[in-house]
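From the shared-data thread, chain only:
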Amino acid sequence: MNDDVKSREVLIQELDEARQARAEQAKSCRAEKTAALELLAGGVAHDINNALTEIMGYTSIMLRSFKPGAPEYEDLDAIQRAAVRMRVLTRRLQAFARRLPPQPVETDLNGLVGDLASKLQELTGAQVQLDVNLSLDLGTVRVDPEQMQWVLMDLVHNAREAISAGGQITLETANVELLDECTCQCGRTLCGPHVMLSVRDTGAGMDNETLSHAFDPFFTTKDRRAGMGLPAAYGIVTA
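Structure, as tokens:
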């Protein structure tokens, strides 16, 4: 009987070790894939930006030769506006690849959320309830305000895409205390007092397959989107 018990204990231990090994291997594969995607995205963004600089420069010069309303002016202006939209996309690629150096300053996240309130409400629309719960005694944080605005807009936009009419998005700030050391996605060990910014929605969530690709550039479940919102936000918060 004792031998049977010991055999079962050994088998359970071996199964646990096998599960841990598979989990570590999967984690390593994800890290390698992310690093490769970051390298590719950064290189592509750099090359496209160089081309856009030339396009925007030449069209700006050519626009001076025509008056607004002229067919040639309208065509050149359309090219210029398309280039500006493309530059926004390349900046998101750079954010994902961590090639947009942040300019951190002491920032009140409550104030940042307040400044974006009207844009966030416009983003969610009238058919989705947007609840904002801000901590009254929130501490300040050192972040790049512009990049944090991108993160917040991208998260709310993604939440809006995940829910149907009648759904709810909750945006919350709070002071939190991490009692035990934990390692975040960026590899830093966190412990002690921190400030939390949370975006939650009442959507159905993601299945495991979708979740495994959520931060991949251009991955999207929506045909009409570029799929760069979450990857850019991920790159910013883990930089």
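The chain has a mean pLDDT of 82.
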